[in-house]
Amino acid sequence: MPIISITRQDDIAILTWDEVGARVNTCKKPAMAELTEAMDRLIADPKIKGIVLASGKASFVVGADLEEMRAMNSEGEIRELLKTLDMFRRMETGGKTIVAALGGDAYGGGFEIALACHVRIAAPNARFGLPEVQHGLLPGGGGTQRLSRLVGLGKVLPYLTEGKPMTSDDALALGAVSAIVPKDELLDAAIAAARTAPAVQPWDTGASILTATDEERAALE
User: Fold this and answer.
1) Ranges of the chain with pLDDT below 70
2) Beta-strand pair 4-9/12-17
3) Helix locations, 44-167, DSSP H
4) Which of 40, 75, 100, 187 has the most beta carbons within 10 angstroms of its beta carbon?
5) What pLDDT is recorded for position 56?
6) Mapped to the 3 state alphabet, what secondary structure does 109-121 carry?
7) How far apart are CA 106 and CA 217, in angstroms?
8) Which pLDDT score, from 0 to 100, does residue 136 have?
9) Contacts of 213 (CB under 8 A, 6+ apart)
10) pLDDT score for 169
11) Sign of the C-alpha dihedral, residues 22, 194, 182, 207?
12) Which class for 76: exposed (0-12), middle (13-18), buried (19 or more C-beta within 10 A)?
C-alpha cells in the first residue's frame, strides 16, 4: 500500500503520510521516494494552486530511521539522500504554496520537511526539534540553515546544539510556526493557508532574519 496518499479539495492537493502498520511515520527511503514523486507531480500540475502535507498518525513525522541511516555507506545511497535535499528546494521554489499541517510531533527529518514548507500550522500538543545531535548525528536536511534564517541564530542555538525540543507555543513565539489551531480545525486552516499564503520562503525575498546570500541559497539546493 502507498505511504503517501493524495486527495484534492478543488485546487488544493492534500498529501497524507501514513505508513501502514507503523506507529509513527519515519523518513525511510520508500516514504521519501513517494514524497518526492508526489511533490514533483503536483508542483508541475497547473490545476493545483497549493499543497497541504498532513499525517495520518497522531504525530507528524518523527525523523529518520537511525539504523537505516547508520547503514548508509554506498555512493548510490548518498546520491539518493542528496535527491531528497533537491526535492526540499523544489518545494520552496516550485511556485505552489505548501503548508505543513502539524497535528503532532515533528522531529529530525520530519521537522526539516516542515521547515521546507512555506507555512507551518500546528496543533497545541505538537512538539518539534532536531534531536539527532543527541545521537552524534548532524541534521542533514537543511534544518539548521532554515531554522536559523527563519528565527535567528541566537534564539535557536539550544535547539541546534543540544537537540532541545520546542513546544508549539515555543515555536509560535520564535516564529517557527505561523499559527496554533485546535486539532479538529487544523486541516481547514491549512487548506485556507494554501490558497492565500505566498509561495516563497523569506530567505528568497530578503525578509529572513538571516538573509541568504546567493552562495547560501546554493547550499540549500
Assistant:
1) 64-83, 134-140, 206-221
2) antiparallel
3) 66-70, 75-93, 109-116, 143-151, 153-161
4) 100
5) 97
6) HHHHHHHHCCEEE
7) 24
8) 65
9) none
10) 98
11) positive
12) exposed
Domain containing 120: what range?
4-220
Q: Which amino acid, residue 168?
A: S
* Number of residues in the chain: 221
Q: Which grid cell sits at 143?
A: 534544518
Cα 184 to chain centroid distance, Å, stands at 21
For position 63, what pLDDT does the model report? 78
Take residue 4 and report the three cell numbers written for it. 503517501
Nearest to 85 by CA among 113, 110, 55: 113
Q: Which helix (H) or strand (E) holds 129?
A: strand 127-129
User: For residue 160, what pLDDT is reported?
Assistant: 85
pLDDT of 119: 98
pTM score, whole prediction: 0.86
Residue the block writes with cell 526540499: 88
Cell of 184: 479538529
CB 204 within 8 A of CB 118: no
- Total domains in the chain come to 1
Neighbouring-strand partners of residue 52: 14, 99
CATH number at residue 194: 3.90.226.10
Cell numbers for 187: 486541516
Q: Which residues are catalytic?
A: 112, 132
What's the grid cell of residue 139? Answer: 541534521
Q: How many CB atoms lie within 10 A of CB 11?
A: 14
Q: Which amino acid, one-letter code, is at 55? A: S
Q: Which three cell numbers stand for residue 188?
A: 481547514
